[in-house]
Write a structure and sequence with these properties.
Layout: H1 3-11, E1 19-22, E2 25-27, H2 30-44, H3 51-76
Antiparallel strand pairs: 1-2
Helix pairs in contact: 1-2, 1-3, 2-3
Length: 78
């Protein structure tokens, strides 16, 4: 997945205010998180030490998609 694809994904959805990336990492301002990570990847993505920024964006996308799937499943069982 490219940074452009991730950027388009995040622009096309309504972001919740907060989300947990894992048990210890709570993001309290998703819009700012996505914005800052996209900027960082575009500027420094070619440098290996910045790869965690791209990884966190992908992780966030996976979490949001999983939550969306759960919500759809809950609604269809009503």
């Amino acid at each position: 997945m490219t940074i452009e694809e991730l950027e388009a994904y995040f622009e096309g959805i309504d972001l919740p205010e907060t989300v947990y990336l894992n048990k210890a990492t709570k993001i309290v301002d998703l819009k700012q998180f996505v914005r800052s990570h996209v900027i960082t990847v575009k500027a420094h993505g070619h440098i290996k030490s910045y790869s965690s920024f791209m990884e966190r964006l992908i992780q966030l996308k996976d979490i949001l998609e999983a939550e969306n799937t759960i919500q759809k499943d809950d609604q269809s069982s009503m």
